[in-house]
Design brief:
Layout lengths: L3 E6 L6 H11 L3 E7 L13 E5 L17 E4 L7 H8 L4 E3 L4 H12 L7 E3 L3 H12 L5 E11 L20 E5 L2 E5 L6 E4 L5 E6 L4 H4 L6 E10 L2 H13 L1 H4 L6 H8 L8 E10 L5 E10 L3 H18 L10 E2 L11 H9 L4 E3 L1
Helix pairs in contact: 1-9, 4-9
Amino acid sequence: MNRKMVLIVGGYGAVGRQIAQILHDRHPELDITLGGRSPEKAAPFESERIQTIVVDNNADDPLLYVGDNVSLIINSVNDLQDRLLLSAVKRKIPLIDLTRWTELFQQSVTKLKKTDLHSPVVLSSGWMAGTASLFAMLHSTSLQNVVVNIHALYSLQDKAGPDSAAYMDRMAIPFYITEPEGRRLVFPMTEPVKVQFPDGYTAKCYRLDTPDHVTLLKAGNVDSANFRISFDSKVATTMLVGMVKSGIWKMISGERFRSLRRSLLYNPGSGSAHHILIHLKGRDQNGHWVERKITISDPLGQTHLTALGAAVQAEKLLRIPEDKPLAPEIYFPEDLPDVRMDSSEISNFFKQYGVLISH
């Protein structure tokens, strides 16, 4: 690999620093710049290949201080006004973004479709940087009329950065799901499904709005995509469901009560495993209905799995030779597999970092 520079925006955060460590260790010739509003902070680990720079996603031009030698940008913090996104596009720098909830994600796609792209933009904001939707796609390619159900077990004791709690601000906002019969408006924390996770924990999972609902439908063989979540505390889950159903959560929506909302469910601990169960149902080549279950467990938790989800997308972009660049288009997590990186290699990437995958 020719010497390249990767800029990780939010590189000091829980996810960003793990992305940096993974890419640093995998690519000895790779230089890494950590971007943030406080570059005077010490780098999360020592290396002569690590440097820091000011990047503020709230600035008019977040990449003002970035040189012209950056080969790839990975964004792991909120970019609410698309300033970093458009700044990267303007400079023709490939970008991987992990931070957009569905409404912001769709806003970004709309802007990008009106913009001339000269480099790839990977919007990998699905659950765990698109890991859930990626594996749903990998195991459904041989099926038609697929219904995807993703269930996640969120540990309240896991390590987490503040941006990971953004979903709490969306709990009172309805969203559309697509079913074989058509689109339907639903509310968060409704329509429970009882699920047993890989660690044996059984709980009811409730609807939550994530970009997986949108990106998985881009595959012509998927008719419906659903995402549900449960917390590893039944008390916390019951409390949240009750507050949403009663309208209390809506009453405490808005900026004024943000700290209150986050105090209820955002108290990150020292770390805990993260579990995902994916249920697929579709027709095989003979027209028969078949069901498949895929389980994903990361003993190092959600921030580690998110970092791996970003790193596997970066791995592909870093491998692409300069004389055969990836087409300048919008990509989603499920677009990862191709001749450069097949499904077996993708699975092995996660497994070598301790992720347990079964199907």
